[in-house]
Model the fold of this input.
Amino acid sequence: MLTWNSRRNVTWQECTIDAPLDPPISQTPQVAEDGTYFCTFSNSVLHRGATLTVNVTSEGREFQGTLTFCNSGKEGSGAVNFSCLIYDVRFLNCSWARGPAAPADVRYHLYMWASLHGNVSECAQYVLDPTGTRVGCHFDQLGEPQTTDNYFFLVNGTSNETDIQFLDFTPFVATEIEKYNPPANLTARNNGSYYVIQWDNPVTRFNISSHVLYYELDIQRKGSFSKRDPVFQRGENRNEYLMPSSAVTGVHTVRVRVRHVYGDAWSDWGPAQPFGFPEKNFTGFLVVLIGLVVGAVALSSMGLMFLCKRFSLKQKLFPPIPQVKRELAGSFTPTQEMAWDGDNPSAGSQEPEDFLTVEEMKLFVGGEAEMVGPAPALNPYENITAVRGRLGQ
Done:
């Protein structure tokens, strides 16, 4: 709040604040009951310092007054990396780090209020680091939630060695710093053409529209080294994602998380939900089959090589055809026929002749002889029995 008094009649006035990293803000001053003029810059960040200016027109003349605001204390002694997060609907955690130039005995203090004119309360449950320095705070009594809640924070500090710089912020919009619980009831079913993935909205502290929710789906194939790109979806659409069945080969998993569309705090990932069917392992079967065939061929080859060494392959594959002895073959050479009279050759036969006699065979059965018949015709190639004689003069 910037205040001043004017000694003359004023026809025009304006006040301005110019802070580093923020655009200048100007406004028309208000007048208090005692005639004091004032301007309130409610959302300005001052820990980096600021320049405040008053421009006045009085009796046709222009006047200007300037005031420089400084953050007293040793440079680098204030807290850094401040952040706050609502979680599990009703809890609030804030954290920060010790300033790089803070003395060893620095003692930080956190103050919070929920509206511009609300009650200011100091943290009741500080979180300490291993050296005993306050580096966080836990709030477990946030009061009844209102969609318009804004949280204001201020961190200052004390030390016996030096002044500690303070740290202030623009108001934290409560609905944007909530870390939601993971979406519940995640399911994946196949309707024949698509896998239909559905989920429920998370339970939130504030009664907000589903349009401000922002989801991320992580869909991956089990056992695959390549990663699919995430799927992002606004809450203004149905909590549903369709994945073509033709694009799903093998078992897949899907998980989902959520955040406020204007926030940075993602929820934790929900449990992964599997879907799809395992692929038939034709490759493994083919490898086994090829191995069996190769093994059988190798064993057969070894057996064949062994046989070839033990027996002549040529003799085994092409056995010799039996030949009739020359002496016997000559016996079957056609000769000139002659007529016999009883046991004597016909007259005029001068040359001795070779002859064969064929005798009847008798089979003795039970001590009695039984005539079987004449001996079968001789086969010149099997069991030849011949009686050779000579007939002469």
User: Anything to note?
Assistant: The first helix runs from residue 282 to 310. Helices lie at 282-310, 313-317, 326-331.
